[in-house]
Amino acid sequence: MSTLSLLKKLSTATVGTAIVGLGVLGTPAMAVTLYQGFDPGIEPGQSRPNSDAAAANFDSDAAALGSVNLIDFENLTPGNYSTLTLGSGVTATWLNPNPYYQSISQLNNSLTGYNTTSGGSKFLSLGPGNPFAPVSLTLAFANPIQSWGAYFTGVQGAIGKYLVQFSDGSLQSLSLAEDNFGGVQFLGFTASGKSISSITIVGKPDSIGQMGDIIGLDDMRYVYAPSDPTQSVPEPTSVLSLLGFSAFGVSSLLKRQQKMKG
């Protein structure tokens, strides 16, 4: 069971930054911070104020942790893949991909996903070939990361749902927003000091065990984890303060005992 209790807050009208988990039981007070903005029904090329605002907030906060790396898929060849190197030590692996929708696609549609890169045309596509078999996309990082985000398009949720999952020591699961007419959203998170080796977008079947939604992912960004992860070690001044407090307590106790004997 995760020590991080996930709390999801989403509004299609407003954009905010939500704290979705806090460390407990003596662990460092680190948090997983969620950034999510949704513009339902938005077509390719239309304004997406909520999504862009969430992305801007993420980029600003993530930049405080390190350089923000971006993959927009524009240098990749459209086609069907089961595994593909995206560059910079990042590998994508599809489970049960749909053969009629290319893994790297240029088929832009608000219901099945589309490009979000300004001046671009390509995006990464995810959808099941067999609607009754598990479907997922795993993004593996040769060098661990501590922050990740991307634009998602065409998420309808009518036939199954998609979750963004990762492990920062415990399994975390974030839900994508949904609309019958698709649209666009940005979802990202920062987990300062954590070390995350992979992100998995996994399909969750509906009540009859069917998963039929086809979605797009584009403009993925991430920040590498620190080389020396944050340690739960008291500051030197704090250690000295504790020692001083302890010495004061022992001294006071001895004085009281001497007075009682006298």
Task: Characterise this structure.
This protein has helices spanning 49-63, 236-261, and strands spanning 16-22, 31-40, 69-71, 83-87, 90-95, 104-105, 123-126, 136-153, 161-167, 171-175, 183-191, 196-204, 215-224. The protein has 262 residues and is of the alpha+beta class. It has two domains: 16-231, Sandwich (Jelly Rolls); 235-262. Strands 1, 2, 3, 4, 5, 6, 7, 8, 9, 10, 11, 12 and 13 form a 13-stranded antiparallel sheet that branches. Residues 1-29 and 228-261 have low confidence and may be disordered.
Low-confidence stretches: 1-29, 228-261
* Number of helices, counting only DSSP H or I runs of 4 residues or more: 2
Which architecture of the largest domain would the CATH scheme give at its second level?
A: Sandwich
Q: What is the radius of gyration?
A: 23 Å
Shape from CA axes? Answer: globular
Round the mean pLDDT to the nearest integer and report it: 82
Decide which structural class fits the backbone. alpha+beta
End-to-end span in angstroms?
58 Å
Strand and helix order: EEHEEEEEEEEEEEH
Give the tally of β-strands: 13
What portion of residues is helical? 10-25%
CATH topology of the largest domain: Jelly Rolls
Domain count: the total is: 2
CATH class of the largest domain: Mainly Beta
**Strand portion:** 35-45%
Biggest sheet overview: 13 strands, antiparallel
